[in-house]
Write a structure and sequence with these properties.
This protein is 57% helix and 0% strand. The protein is built from 10 helices and no strands.
């Protein structure tokens, strides 16, 4: 047996650190695999409340197109950068809770919440300049000459006015909900003149 203290000390450290090193590798592999698994469309649509979304999505070019390119749930709803991705994963935990308590457990319940859910996603995409859309689409890569007449007209205008993808493409992957009547009433009330005061739009 080697009696060299330095060599013996190094050997003890190696024995102590090896399990930690192996556990670190196993954790990293498990973490990476877990992230990848929860990004799969089969995982996202495994809850029965997501079946409505799935059937709508299957009727869109994001699911099936001439190019053969498919954008899945995570492509549109999970950020690519690590920190925003982790934040999105944590926030998504609430979906599990609502699945358990049946917040949108039926078609009728789903429709009751559709407008609110859609606006949450629209606001998020508006705030980050449609970041996930831009993982595949970009102004620079567009060939306007290959687009139809309407797109050819609207895209340059959108670029000029600083619009983002979601401004012109609501309902591109899921059915666009109708604005509830109570929302229209609230908006109308917010711009209505106060009692006893002339309307600001009244002609002088």
């Amino acid at each position: 047996m080697d009696n060299d203290p330095k060599r013996r000390s190094w050997f003890v450290k190696l024995i102590f650190m090896s399990p930690l090193f192996i556990l670190g590798i196993l954790f990293s592999l498990s973490f990476s695999h877990g992230l990848q698994y929860t990004n799969e469309m089969s995982f996202c649509t495994s809850c029965h409340t997501m079946k409505i979304n799935l059937e709508e999505y299957k009727k869109t070019p994001h699911y099936k197109s001439a190019s053969g390119v498919r954008a899945t749930c995570s492509d549109c709803h999970v950020p690519k950068p690590f920190v925003p991705k982790m934040i999105a994963k944590v926030i998504a935990a609430k979906d599990v809770w609502h699945e358990i308590i049946g917040t949108i457990g039926t078609k009728e319940k789903y429709e009751q919440h559709r407008w609110r859910m859609a606006n949450v996603v629209w606001d998020k995409m508006k705030a980050n300049d449609s970041r996930e859309c831009r993982s595949c689409h970009s102004w620079d890569a567009m060939d306007l000459n290959e687009q139809d007449k309407q797109a050819k007209k609207k895209h340059p205008r959108a670029m000029t006015h600083g619009k983002t993808c979601i401004d012109g493409h609501k309902g591109i992957a899921h059915e666009e909900p109708d604005e509830p009547d109570d929302v229209v009433v609230k908006q109308t009330s917010s711009v209505a003149p106060s009692p006893g005061k002339p309307s600001e739009t009244k002609m002088q």
